[in-house]
Amino acid sequence: MIELFKKSLLVSSVVILTQINLIAQSTTSSIKQNQLYLELGGNGMIYSINYERSLSENFTLRGGFGITPGLIFAEGTFIHIPVTASYLIGGVSSKFETGLGVTYFAGTDIEVFGLPSDDQSLIFLTGIVGYRYISPGGFVFRIAFTPFYNSQAEPNFIPSGGLSFGFMF
Hints:
With 169 residues, the chain is an alpha+beta fold. It folds into 2 domains: 1-30; 33-168, Porin. The protein is built from 1 helix and 13 strands, in the order αβββββββββββββ. A hairpin with a 4-residue loop joins β9 (121-134) and β10. The protein is elongated. The mean pLDDT is 83.
C-alpha cells in the first residue's frame, strides 16, 4: 500500500510540475522584451539607432550607434555610442522613465563642444528623464530630457532632449 502511495505521489508531482513549467513558458514567451528604435537628439546627441532589452517589468538596458559628419558644434566625422540603463514606472502603455548612462564619441579631428581630444575619443555621462508610450500593437514613442556632463567640457553641463520612434518584438 505504501509503495502504491509513493508511486502515485511521484506521478502526481511530475504531472503538476510539468504543468507549472508549461504555464511559465507560455506566460514569459508572450511578453515582448526587445525594442528597436530611432532616437533623434537624445543620448546619441544627433541621432542613434538603438536596441533595448527589458530585464524586468521596470528595468531596461540599451545600446545604440550613430555616425555623424561634422556639424556646427562638432568638427570632423565621429561615431557616437550611447549605453544606458533605465527604470520605468507606470502602467502597461504609459510610463515615466528615468535613467543614467554614458555616450562614447570617437572620430577624426573630433572637437565636441569646444573639448578637443588628443586620443580622438570622449566620454560623456548622460541622463534620462522622460515619458514612454507603448501601444498595444508594440509601437514605441519616447520623449525625454537627456543632459550630458563632462568635467573637462565647456560648458560642463549640456542640456539636451530627444524623441524616439520604434517597435517592440
